[in-house]
Amino acid sequence: MSESSATEVVILGGGIVGCTTAYYLAREGVRATIIERDTVAGHSSGFALGGLNPLGGIGIPDPIGQLSLESFRLHAELAKALPDETGVDTEYGLETGITVAYSEAEAAALQERLPWQQAQEGFRVEWKSGEDILMLEPRLAPGVVGGVVTQHVGMLDPYRHTLALLQASERAGAVMRHGTVLGLGFDGDRLQSVRLSSGDIPCERVVIAMGAWTVHASDWLGIELPVRPLKGQLLWLQVDGPPISHLSWGASYAVTKPDDLVWVGTTEEDAGYDEAPTAQGRQTIMESVLRALPYLADSRVVQHTACLRPVTADGLPILGQVPGRPDVVVATGGGRKGIHLSAVMGRIAADLVAHRQTRYDISALKPGRAISDSAARASESDPFRF
User: How many CB atoms are located within 10 Å of the residue 123 CB?
Assistant: First the structure.
């Protein structure tokens, strides 16, 4: 790669994956230009919960369990480095995670993954009876069959974290530009430019980290990038009482964040690109939350937000070089694990840009792979989705 070009690498998307990629490229001495249509972390990244649980979710333990564990380790490194480099408090912290089963089927699903979880170094994962779970959190509704207690899961503020990544990258020479991407320019298989509505940017490499909008790049590359938006809404509640550890049940969660508000969610809606919070979403969340934590009936809604998660049909990220287009790297599709997986996805994207290879096994995630929706259907009953 050339040493003088300020636009040797262009990253499409100013969300958490794009900014993580820029950060790791900066550490390699590579300056990137980030193209963002709106604002940094202005869509999914800035409105997510920010949970970091490496031991559960689609594709864990196989095929992405090791990537998930590595991402957790990288987040711990970033949590130390970013405040020192930028002065931004990313609100990173570790806490107890409690995943609750209210049926025998949910309990069986939790216990099936338990041996792998307990084998992972650095974590303490235990199955607890319903009585033990209620002793840990007596505000839970009766009927708990059991649950998994994990020491520890992580939490951060996704907007602050992404902002810190951007600021650290900019201090090393990265630039963010605002504009609408119209396509890519090639000479044969060789990338020449990114085409914006305001003009072309010559470049040698490009990273497509456009989140739920990645599907629009399919026509630019001649391959299918089947990413769709999955809308998720959450509420910030003000209520008296001690803080709540990171509780989850089914598709729902509740946790007290550093702002002393209880964040609760979430929905899983096929609503296209509609990012507006809705009264129906609020009702859906509160119905689920009150079934598990009835004391929150006395809470006051302080904030109601929504985001568009980028998901694929098989629930796994799309990560790697585009077949026949080695100058183009795709990094997207983290879904509900997008904040957690962002660290390793950005690290890998930077590896592929700077070195054309990575030490991580991403063979199951390559762009253009045949994607089945069987894994996603199976995940609908997965109690470890958070």
Answer: 17
Residue 116 lies in a domain: yes
- Residue 210 has φ and ψ, to the nearest 5°, of -95, 10
Nearest to 232 by CA among 331, 319, 154, 339: 339
- In the block, which residue shows the tokens 């762009």? 367
Query: What's the burial of 301, exposed, middle or buried (CB within 10 Å: 0-12/13-18/19+)?
Result: middle
- Residues 95 and 263: their CA atoms lie apart, in Å, by 15
CB atoms within 10 A of CB 55: 24
Beta carbons of 184 and 148 less than 8 angstroms apart: no
Residues 56, 26 contacting (CB under 8 angstroms) = no
How many CB atoms neighbour CB 31 within 10 A? 21
Quick one: tokens of 9? 């690498």
Give residue 134's domain range. Answer: 93-153+228-311
pLDDT digits (tens, 9 = 90+) for 45-67: 889 999 999 999 999 999 999 99
| Alpha carbons within 13 A on the beta-carbon side of 62 | 0
Beta strand spans in the chain (E): 9-12, 32-36, 51-52, 93-101, 124-129, 146-155, 175-178, 181-187, 190-196, 199-202, 205-208, 227-238, 246-249, 252-256, 262-265, 300-312, 318-322, 325-332
Q: Is the same domain home to 50 and 37? A: yes
Indicate the pLDDT class of residue 385, thresholds 50, 70 and 90: low
Closest CA to 90 of 167, 163, 170: 163
User: Is the pTM here over 0.85, yes or no?
Assistant: yes
**Which amino acid belongs to residue 142?**
P
Please choose, from the candidates 57, 12, 288, 48, the residue with its C-alpha nearest in 3D space to the C-alpha of residue 177: 12
37 and 104 co-located in one domain: no
**Which residue, among 369, 279, 334, has the nearest Cα to 21 in the 3D structure?**
334
Residue with the larger pLDDT of the pair 151 and 370: 151
Q: Cα separation of 212 and 70, whole Å?
A: 24
Domain end residue (candidates: 291, 311, 331): 311
- Has residue 299 been placed in a domain? yes
Task: Report CA torsion sign: 90, 96, 99, 102.
Answer: negative
What domain count does the chain have?
Answer: 2
